[in-house]
Amino acid sequence: IVGYWLRIVFVTTTGILGLSYLNLLNWLTLALLYIFCLTFNYLESNDWQVVYCLHSLQSKTFNLVDILDRGLSFEDVIKNIQYSCQKIKQQFIYYLDNLVIRQGIFFVAILTVVLAFALLLRWEYPLLELRFSHPDRYSVLLITRQILAGNYPEINYLPVFPALAAIVSLFASIDAMQAIRFLSPLVGIILVLSLGYSVRVLTNNFSSALVTMFGLGVYLFTWEQEINPELPIWLMRVIDSLNSSLIRQWTGNELELGGIFVLLSLGYYFDRDRSQEKTITFRINLVCGIILVAMSAPPLLILLAIAGIGAIGGKRLALTAIALTWIILAIFGSMTQGQLLWTQSFLLPLPVALSLLAGLLFNANAEIAQLISK
Question: Which residue, of 3, 129, 238, 299, has the fewest CB within 10 Å?
Protein backbone atom coordinates (compact mmCIF):
# COMPACT_ATOMS: atom_id res chain seq x y z
CA ILE A 1 0.00 0.00 0.00
CA VAL A 2 2.81 2.41 0.89
CA GLY A 3 4.64 1.65 -2.34
CA TYR A 4 1.53 2.19 -4.47
CA TRP A 5 0.78 5.42 -2.64
CA LEU A 6 4.30 6.79 -3.23
CA ARG A 7 4.12 5.92 -6.91
CA ILE A 8 0.65 7.42 -7.45
CA VAL A 9 1.56 10.64 -5.63
CA PHE A 10 4.72 10.94 -7.72
CA VAL A 11 2.94 10.37 -11.05
CA THR A 12 0.01 12.67 -10.27
CA THR A 13 2.20 15.45 -8.85
CA THR A 14 4.68 15.45 -11.71
CA GLY A 15 1.81 15.02 -14.16
CA ILE A 16 -0.15 18.03 -12.95
CA LEU A 17 2.98 20.20 -12.80
CA GLY A 18 3.89 19.16 -16.35
CA LEU A 19 0.37 19.74 -17.66
CA SER A 20 0.27 23.15 -15.99
CA TYR A 21 3.64 24.08 -17.47
CA LEU A 22 2.41 23.05 -20.94
CA ASN A 23 -0.93 24.87 -20.45
CA LEU A 24 -2.80 21.56 -20.84
CA LEU A 25 -4.24 21.26 -17.34
CA ASN A 26 -7.99 20.68 -17.24
CA TRP A 27 -10.41 18.11 -15.90
CA LEU A 28 -10.10 15.92 -19.03
CA THR A 29 -6.30 15.63 -19.06
CA LEU A 30 -6.25 15.08 -15.30
CA ALA A 31 -8.88 12.34 -15.61
CA LEU A 32 -6.83 10.68 -18.37
CA LEU A 33 -3.75 10.82 -16.15
CA TYR A 34 -5.69 9.23 -13.30
CA ILE A 35 -7.01 6.49 -15.62
CA PHE A 36 -3.43 5.85 -16.78
CA CYS A 37 -2.35 5.34 -13.15
CA LEU A 38 -5.22 2.91 -12.51
CA THR A 39 -4.50 1.00 -15.73
CA PHE A 40 -0.79 0.74 -14.90
CA ASN A 41 -1.50 -0.59 -11.41
CA TYR A 42 -4.13 -3.02 -12.74
CA LEU A 43 -1.74 -4.46 -15.31
CA GLU A 44 0.99 -4.75 -12.70
CA SER A 45 -1.28 -6.59 -10.25
CA ASN A 46 -2.03 -9.12 -13.03
CA ASP A 47 1.65 -9.69 -13.91
CA TRP A 48 1.36 -7.64 -17.12
CA GLN A 49 -0.92 -10.20 -18.76
CA VAL A 50 -2.48 -7.81 -21.25
CA VAL A 51 -4.63 -10.44 -22.95
CA TYR A 52 -6.09 -11.61 -19.65
CA CYS A 53 -6.83 -8.02 -18.62
CA LEU A 54 -8.55 -7.32 -21.94
CA HIS A 55 -10.73 -10.42 -21.61
CA SER A 56 -11.59 -9.47 -18.03
CA LEU A 57 -12.46 -5.91 -19.07
CA GLN A 58 -14.53 -7.21 -21.98
CA SER A 59 -16.45 -9.56 -19.70
CA LYS A 60 -17.18 -6.77 -17.22
CA THR A 61 -18.30 -4.47 -20.02
CA PHE A 62 -20.72 -7.09 -21.35
CA ASN A 63 -22.10 -7.64 -17.84
CA LEU A 64 -22.61 -3.90 -17.44
CA VAL A 65 -24.40 -3.65 -20.80
CA ASP A 66 -26.58 -6.61 -19.85
CA ILE A 67 -27.52 -4.98 -16.55
CA LEU A 68 -28.35 -1.69 -18.25
CA ASP A 69 -30.36 -3.50 -20.93
CA ARG A 70 -32.49 -5.28 -18.33
CA GLY A 71 -32.96 -2.01 -16.46
CA LEU A 72 -31.64 -0.99 -13.09
CA SER A 73 -33.70 -1.88 -10.09
CA PHE A 74 -33.56 0.65 -7.29
CA GLU A 75 -34.01 -2.10 -4.72
CA ASP A 76 -31.09 -4.07 -6.19
CA VAL A 77 -28.89 -0.99 -6.03
CA ILE A 78 -29.80 -0.46 -2.36
CA LYS A 79 -29.11 -4.12 -1.60
CA ASN A 80 -25.71 -3.96 -3.30
CA ILE A 81 -24.80 -0.83 -1.35
CA GLN A 82 -25.89 -2.45 1.90
CA TYR A 83 -23.93 -5.58 1.05
CA SER A 84 -20.81 -3.54 0.31
CA CYS A 85 -21.16 -1.56 3.54
CA GLN A 86 -21.69 -4.77 5.50
CA LYS A 87 -18.60 -6.30 3.93
CA ILE A 88 -16.48 -3.25 4.76
CA LYS A 89 -17.84 -3.31 8.32
CA GLN A 90 -16.95 -6.98 8.73
CA GLN A 91 -13.43 -6.39 7.41
CA PHE A 92 -12.94 -3.50 9.84
CA ILE A 93 -14.21 -5.57 12.77
CA TYR A 94 -11.96 -8.45 11.74
CA TYR A 95 -8.93 -6.16 11.56
CA LEU A 96 -9.79 -4.57 14.90
CA ASP A 97 -10.21 -7.98 16.55
CA ASN A 98 -6.83 -9.09 15.26
CA LEU A 99 -5.25 -5.88 16.54
CA VAL A 100 -6.79 -6.41 19.98
CA ILE A 101 -5.63 -10.02 20.05
CA ARG A 102 -2.07 -9.13 19.03
CA GLN A 103 -1.56 -5.95 21.07
CA GLY A 104 -4.24 -5.97 23.74
CA ILE A 105 -7.21 -3.75 24.48
CA PHE A 106 -5.03 -1.23 26.38
CA PHE A 107 -2.90 -0.56 23.29
CA VAL A 108 -5.97 -0.07 21.10
CA ALA A 109 -7.50 2.32 23.66
CA ILE A 110 -4.34 4.43 23.88
CA LEU A 111 -4.03 4.46 20.08
CA THR A 112 -7.62 5.68 19.80
CA VAL A 113 -6.94 8.47 22.30
CA VAL A 114 -3.77 9.55 20.48
CA LEU A 115 -5.51 9.68 17.11
CA ALA A 116 -8.48 11.51 18.61
CA PHE A 117 -6.26 14.23 20.09
CA ALA A 118 -4.25 14.46 16.85
CA LEU A 119 -7.45 14.96 14.85
CA LEU A 120 -8.80 17.49 17.34
CA LEU A 121 -5.58 19.52 17.42
CA ARG A 122 -5.26 19.75 13.64
CA TRP A 123 -8.89 20.08 12.62
CA GLU A 124 -10.12 22.42 15.34
CA TYR A 125 -8.90 25.62 13.69
CA PRO A 126 -9.93 24.93 10.06
CA LEU A 127 -13.40 23.84 11.18
CA LEU A 128 -13.96 26.90 13.38
CA GLU A 129 -12.18 29.58 11.36
CA LEU A 130 -12.59 30.47 7.71
CA ARG A 131 -9.30 32.34 7.36
CA PHE A 132 -5.92 30.68 7.20
CA SER A 133 -3.96 30.20 10.40
CA HIS A 134 -0.64 31.20 8.82
CA PRO A 135 0.13 34.02 6.34
CA ASP A 136 2.16 31.64 4.16
CA ARG A 137 -1.10 29.94 3.18
CA TYR A 138 -2.09 32.91 1.06
CA SER A 139 1.01 32.59 -1.09
CA VAL A 140 0.21 28.87 -1.44
CA LEU A 141 -3.32 29.86 -2.51
CA LEU A 142 -1.91 32.18 -5.17
CA ILE A 143 0.39 29.45 -6.55
CA THR A 144 -2.46 26.92 -6.56
CA ARG A 145 -4.70 29.24 -8.55
CA GLN A 146 -1.88 29.94 -10.98
CA ILE A 147 -1.50 26.19 -11.54
CA LEU A 148 -5.24 25.80 -12.07
CA ALA A 149 -5.22 28.69 -14.54
CA GLY A 150 -2.36 27.14 -16.52
CA ASN A 151 -0.08 30.04 -15.64
CA TYR A 152 2.89 28.19 -14.20
CA PRO A 153 4.28 30.22 -11.25
CA GLU A 154 7.74 31.72 -11.59
CA ILE A 155 9.30 30.30 -8.43
CA ASN A 156 12.63 28.62 -7.73
CA TYR A 157 11.19 25.38 -6.31
CA LEU A 158 8.64 22.75 -7.26
CA PRO A 159 5.25 23.54 -5.67
CA VAL A 160 4.32 20.03 -4.54
CA PHE A 161 1.67 21.04 -1.99
CA PRO A 162 -0.06 23.50 -4.37
CA ALA A 163 -0.09 20.74 -7.01
CA LEU A 164 -1.87 18.38 -4.61
CA ALA A 165 -4.29 21.15 -3.66
CA ALA A 166 -4.97 21.74 -7.35
CA ILE A 167 -5.78 18.04 -7.81
CA VAL A 168 -8.25 18.12 -4.92
CA SER A 169 -9.79 21.33 -6.22
CA LEU A 170 -10.29 19.90 -9.73
CA PHE A 171 -11.59 16.48 -8.72
CA ALA A 172 -13.84 17.75 -5.91
CA SER A 173 -14.99 20.85 -7.82
CA ILE A 174 -14.33 23.12 -4.86
CA ASP A 175 -12.51 26.40 -4.54
CA ALA A 176 -8.74 26.24 -4.09
CA MET A 177 -8.99 28.05 -0.76
CA GLN A 178 -11.22 25.34 0.68
CA ALA A 179 -8.96 22.62 -0.74
CA ILE A 180 -5.94 24.14 1.02
CA ARG A 181 -7.91 24.77 4.18
CA PHE A 182 -8.80 21.09 4.64
CA LEU A 183 -5.80 19.49 2.95
CA SER A 184 -3.32 21.16 5.31
CA PRO A 185 -4.51 19.41 8.53
CA LEU A 186 -4.78 16.16 6.58
CA VAL A 187 -1.05 16.44 5.84
CA GLY A 188 -0.45 16.79 9.59
CA ILE A 189 -2.45 13.63 10.30
CA ILE A 190 -0.60 11.66 7.62
CA LEU A 191 2.69 12.87 9.13
CA VAL A 192 1.70 11.41 12.51
CA LEU A 193 0.68 8.09 10.94
CA SER A 194 3.86 7.95 8.83
CA LEU A 195 5.95 8.56 11.93
CA GLY A 196 4.28 5.67 13.75
CA TYR A 197 4.67 3.38 10.73
CA SER A 198 8.39 4.03 10.29
CA VAL A 199 9.15 3.63 14.01
CA ARG A 200 7.17 0.39 14.16
CA VAL A 201 9.15 -0.99 11.21
CA LEU A 202 12.57 0.17 12.43
CA THR A 203 12.12 -0.87 16.08
CA ASN A 204 9.65 -3.74 15.64
CA ASN A 205 7.92 -2.37 18.73
CA PHE A 206 4.33 -1.17 18.60
CA SER A 207 4.62 0.57 21.97
CA SER A 208 7.55 2.69 20.76
CA ALA A 209 5.53 3.66 17.70
CA LEU A 210 2.65 4.64 19.99
CA VAL A 211 4.91 6.83 22.13
CA THR A 212 6.27 8.49 19.00
CA MET A 213 2.78 9.16 17.64
CA PHE A 214 1.72 10.51 21.04
CA GLY A 215 4.60 13.00 21.10
CA LEU A 216 3.82 14.49 17.72
CA GLY A 217 0.08 13.89 17.65
CA VAL A 218 -0.64 15.62 20.95
CA TYR A 219 2.38 17.93 20.45
CA LEU A 220 4.35 17.98 23.70
CA PHE A 221 7.02 20.45 22.59
CA THR A 222 5.66 23.84 23.63
CA TRP A 223 7.41 26.04 26.19
CA GLU A 224 4.68 27.85 28.13
CA GLN A 225 6.95 29.44 30.73
CA GLU A 226 8.70 32.75 30.16
CA ILE A 227 12.01 32.26 28.39
CA ASN A 228 15.03 33.08 30.54
CA PRO A 229 17.11 35.73 28.71
CA GLU A 230 20.25 34.16 30.17
CA LEU A 231 19.78 31.09 27.98
CA PRO A 232 22.01 30.74 24.91
CA ILE A 233 20.68 32.49 21.84
CA TRP A 234 20.56 29.28 19.80
CA LEU A 235 18.47 27.57 22.49
CA MET A 236 16.04 30.48 22.56
CA ARG A 237 15.67 30.18 18.78
CA VAL A 238 14.98 26.46 19.13
CA ILE A 239 12.30 27.09 21.77
CA ASP A 240 10.71 29.80 19.66
CA SER A 241 10.71 27.49 16.65
CA LEU A 242 9.07 24.70 18.65
CA ASN A 243 6.36 27.05 19.88
CA SER A 244 5.64 28.35 16.39
CA SER A 245 5.70 24.82 14.96
CA LEU A 246 2.48 24.14 16.82
CA ILE A 247 0.69 26.29 14.23
CA ARG A 248 2.36 24.35 11.42
CA GLN A 249 0.48 21.23 12.56
CA TRP A 250 -2.58 22.46 10.67
CA THR A 251 -0.71 24.37 7.95
CA GLY A 252 1.18 21.54 6.27
CA ASN A 253 3.59 22.59 3.55
CA GLU A 254 6.48 21.22 1.50
CA LEU A 255 8.57 20.53 4.62
CA GLU A 256 5.84 18.41 6.17
CA LEU A 257 5.37 16.59 2.87
CA GLY A 258 9.11 16.02 2.67
CA GLY A 259 9.06 14.56 6.18
CA ILE A 260 6.19 12.24 5.19
CA PHE A 261 8.05 11.01 2.11
CA VAL A 262 11.24 10.46 4.11
CA LEU A 263 9.45 8.42 6.77
CA LEU A 264 7.42 6.38 4.29
CA SER A 265 10.47 5.70 2.10
CA LEU A 266 12.46 4.51 5.11
CA GLY A 267 9.63 2.34 6.37
CA TYR A 268 9.01 0.94 2.90
CA TYR A 269 12.69 0.12 2.40
CA PHE A 270 13.18 -1.66 5.73
CA ASP A 271 9.77 -3.37 5.74
CA ARG A 272 10.57 -5.80 2.93
CA ASP A 273 11.90 -9.30 2.41
CA ARG A 274 14.69 -10.45 0.16
CA SER A 275 12.38 -11.64 -2.62
CA GLN A 276 10.58 -8.30 -2.72
CA GLU A 277 13.86 -6.37 -2.83
CA LYS A 278 14.74 -7.97 -6.17
CA THR A 279 11.53 -6.95 -7.93
CA ILE A 280 11.41 -4.00 -10.30
CA THR A 281 8.21 -2.77 -8.64
CA PHE A 282 9.95 -2.36 -5.29
CA ARG A 283 12.76 -0.37 -6.87
CA ILE A 284 10.39 1.87 -8.83
CA ASN A 285 8.34 2.68 -5.72
CA LEU A 286 11.47 3.40 -3.70
CA VAL A 287 12.86 5.68 -6.41
CA CYS A 288 9.51 7.51 -6.55
CA GLY A 289 9.72 8.12 -2.80
CA ILE A 290 13.28 9.46 -3.04
CA ILE A 291 12.36 11.75 -5.95
CA LEU A 292 9.37 13.07 -3.98
CA VAL A 293 11.73 13.98 -1.13
CA ALA A 294 14.00 15.77 -3.62
CA MET A 295 11.02 17.65 -5.07
CA SER A 296 9.45 18.78 -1.79
CA ALA A 297 12.42 19.22 0.59
CA PRO A 298 15.83 18.50 -1.01
CA PRO A 299 17.88 19.02 2.21
CA LEU A 300 16.05 16.07 3.78
CA LEU A 301 17.87 13.78 1.35
CA ILE A 302 20.71 13.94 3.87
CA LEU A 303 18.56 11.84 6.20
CA LEU A 304 18.12 9.14 3.57
CA ALA A 305 21.87 9.07 3.00
CA ILE A 306 22.51 8.79 6.75
CA ALA A 307 19.91 6.01 6.95
CA GLY A 308 21.68 4.12 4.18
CA ILE A 309 24.98 4.33 6.04
CA GLY A 310 23.41 3.48 9.40
CA ALA A 311 21.57 0.50 7.91
CA ILE A 312 24.89 -1.38 7.91
CA GLY A 313 24.48 -1.73 11.68
CA GLY A 314 20.79 -2.60 11.57
CA LYS A 315 17.41 -0.88 11.64
CA ARG A 316 17.70 0.66 15.09
CA LEU A 317 21.11 2.13 14.37
CA ALA A 318 19.70 3.67 11.21
CA LEU A 319 16.80 5.20 13.17
CA THR A 320 19.20 6.51 15.84
CA ALA A 321 21.43 8.06 13.20
CA ILE A 322 18.46 9.76 11.55
CA ALA A 323 17.10 11.23 14.79
CA LEU A 324 20.47 12.48 16.04
CA THR A 325 21.47 13.91 12.64
CA TRP A 326 18.15 15.72 12.37
CA ILE A 327 18.51 17.27 15.85
CA ILE A 328 22.16 18.23 15.33
CA LEU A 329 21.42 19.93 12.01
CA ALA A 330 18.44 21.73 13.57
CA ILE A 331 20.66 23.08 16.36
CA PHE A 332 23.27 24.06 13.79
CA GLY A 333 20.54 25.91 11.88
CA SER A 334 19.62 27.88 15.00
CA MET A 335 23.27 28.79 15.58
CA THR A 336 23.78 30.10 12.04
CA GLN A 337 20.90 32.59 12.51
CA GLY A 338 19.29 31.61 9.21
CA GLN A 339 22.42 32.32 7.16
CA LEU A 340 22.27 28.79 5.73
CA LEU A 341 18.72 28.45 4.48
CA TRP A 342 18.91 24.69 3.94
CA THR A 343 19.38 24.13 7.69
CA GLN A 344 15.93 25.64 8.30
CA SER A 345 14.51 22.51 6.68
CA PHE A 346 15.63 20.64 9.80
CA LEU A 347 14.82 23.33 12.37
CA LEU A 348 11.18 23.98 11.42
CA PRO A 349 10.02 20.31 11.54
CA LEU A 350 12.20 19.59 14.60
CA PRO A 351 9.21 18.09 16.55
CA VAL A 352 9.35 15.11 14.20
CA ALA A 353 12.96 14.40 15.20
CA LEU A 354 12.17 14.86 18.89
CA SER A 355 9.29 12.41 18.56
CA LEU A 356 11.66 9.91 16.94
CA LEU A 357 14.09 10.39 19.84
CA ALA A 358 11.27 9.82 22.36
CA GLY A 359 10.38 6.55 20.66
CA LEU A 360 14.01 5.45 20.67
CA LEU A 361 14.45 6.24 24.38
CA PHE A 362 11.26 4.37 25.23
CA ASN A 363 12.40 1.36 23.21
CA ALA A 364 15.82 1.37 24.92
CA ASN A 365 14.23 1.60 28.40
CA ALA A 366 11.84 -1.23 27.54
CA GLU A 367 14.72 -3.47 26.46
CA ILE A 368 16.73 -2.64 29.60
CA ALA A 369 13.72 -3.39 31.79
CA GLN A 370 13.20 -6.69 29.97
CA LEU A 371 16.85 -7.68 30.53
CA ILE A 372 16.66 -6.80 34.23
CA SER A 373 13.45 -8.80 34.68
CA LYS A 374 15.17 -11.87 33.22
Answer: 129
C-alpha to C-alpha distances, 139 to 21, 110, 180, 191, 357, nearest whole angstrom: 19, 38, 11, 22, 33
Compute the distance between CA of residue 361 and CA of residue 355 in angstroms, rounded to an integer. Answer: 10
Q: In this predicted model, what pLDDT tens digit does every residue of 175-190 receive, in sequence order? A: 888 888 888 888 989 9
Lowest-pLDDT range of 16-30, 194-208, 289-303, 347-361: 16-30
Please count the CA atoms within 13 angstroms of the CA of 144 that sit on its side-chain side: 26
- What is the tens place of the pLDDT at every residue in 257-279? 999 999 999 999 888 776 666 68
Three-class DSSP category at 69? helix
Q: How far apart are the first and last CA of the chain?
A: 38
- Structure pTM? 0.84
Whole-Å CA distances, 84 to 42, 78, 90, 158, 295: 21, 10, 10, 40, 39
